[in-house]
Amino acid sequence: MISHIIDDTLLIKLQALIGSVQRIAITCHKSPDGDALGSTLALCHVLRRMGKEAVVVTPDMAPKALEFIPGVRDIVVFTRQELRAKHVLNEAQLIFCLDFNSLHRIDRLGEIIEPLKVKRVLIDHHLNPEDIFDISISHPEVSSTCELVFRVMMQMGLLRLMDRQVASCLYVGLTTDTGGFAYSCDNPEFYEILASIMRRHIDRITLYNRAMNTFSADSLRLQGYAISEKMQLFPDQGAALIVLDKTELERFNYNRGDTETLVNKPLAIPGIYWSVFMREDADKVKVSCRSQGDFSVSDICTRYFNGGGHENAAGGDFIGTIDDAVAVFYQVLSDLFPVQDKSEQTSTQEQ
Ligand code: 5GP
Ligand code: MN
After folding, report:
1. DSSP states of 241-288
2. In the chain, pLDDT over 70 holds for what percent of residues?
3. What CATH number has the domain bearing residue 308?
4. Do 152 and 15 reside in the same domain of the chain?
5. Which of 83, 123, 279, 291 could form an SS bridge with 297, CB 3.0 to 4.6 Å?
6. Residue 170 has pLDDT above 60, yes or no
7. CA of 289, closest atom in ligand 1
8. Ligand nearest to the CA of 123
9. Which ligand is nearest to the CA of 124?
10. Cα 63 to Cα 228: distance, rounded to the nearest angstrom
């Protein structure tokens, strides 16, 4: 039995809102991942089946590796089709905001959406959502936004609209946001949702392999290089750091998404429970963090790297040089794990 975790009064409002409009835009965070794309596209397919004119607008391109998700080609990408994206948003009578908690996570789309008079609906699982939504369906305790979209559909009695295509989209987010069912999926209801999705006869093995285990040769070589040559371990602090600069990325013909799961790899080492990956970008350093147990990398990304996320998976955009970013990492180490003065240790032991 899957419980109703979403406040039913919100869903009654949402049902009335959807019923009263025709044109709906759906957006998600920049650098969209499997959950952002899976949830927006699933919702888009469902709304279209309800007779709505629904369009997904993303701040930037989906990574090549995720182009297999049904409907990706119909997405309006702001950085590619700015005028069309503006038109869709300006004409929309309702805007869904999926898989992000604050307008700065959608770059310039935020500036466009902010002054619009239309209602905004949030469906998201990040901590601390901004208070700018007319309906806010925010549940940080769930695995993914795809899980929430499923729950919204279930509680609104719309599961009959979950065909194979919708189920495939949802499966991608459930898989990628849990690292292939490794974390954020301890609630038994997660598997009941998965069972319901499986009943739509999705091509599970193909979807899993494409979402989790498909990399170009360049990408595999880059990851091999990063682990072999660039991984630094800090056993006393349970930490790992991998840093890749522009020259290294160019050497391996870096494409978006090529280092997607790299940050997880050091967590395989016994005793390493948090991992940081830094990638030098055009005008910033992209920081990705992962952890195990109750060590919160979301706090670290919020405090030091201009970002946020979840307890065990977070990221940020660091403005500065790659050396500055590495210096901040060392600052985090010394702030969180202050080295005890030897004389202090002795005096503590003597007492
Ligand atoms: P990733 O490391 O895969 O880019 O992101 C991991 C998690 O952290 C995702 O849930 C993502 O939404 C969040 N995240 C990544 N980058 C940022 C950022 O720059 N700002 C915030 N607030 N969250 C981020
Ligand atoms: Mn997500």
Report:
1. EEEE-HHHHHHTT--TTTTTTGGGGGGGSTT--EEEEEEE-SSSEEEE
2. 97
3. 3.10.310.30
4. yes
5. 291
6. yes
7. 2
8. 2
9. 2
10. 25
Residue nearest to atom 14 of ligand 1 (CA): 315
Overall pTM > 0.90: yes
- Give the residue, by CA position, lying nearest to ligand 1 atom 7: 314
Instruction: Calculate how far, in angstroms, residue 243's C-alpha sits from the geometric centre of ligand 1.
Output: 17
Give CA separation, 271 vs 230, 234, 329, in Å. 19, 10, 19
Q: Tokens for 181, please give them.
A: 């069912």
Which residue, 212, 234, 256, sits at the end of a domain? 212
Rounded to whole angstroms, the Cα distance separating 246 from 231 reads: 17
For the chain, the domain total comes to: 2
Edge-to-edge order in the sheet of strand 239-244: 232-234, 239-244, 274-280, 285-291, 313-318, 307-309
Distance 15 CA to ligand 2 centre (A): 23
Tokens read off for 165: 């295509």
Domain range enclosing 233: 217-350
Q: Print burial letters for 212-227: b (CB count within 10 Å at least 16), e (below 16).
A: beebeeebeebbeebe
Which residue's C-alpha comes closest to atom 15 of ligand 1?
315
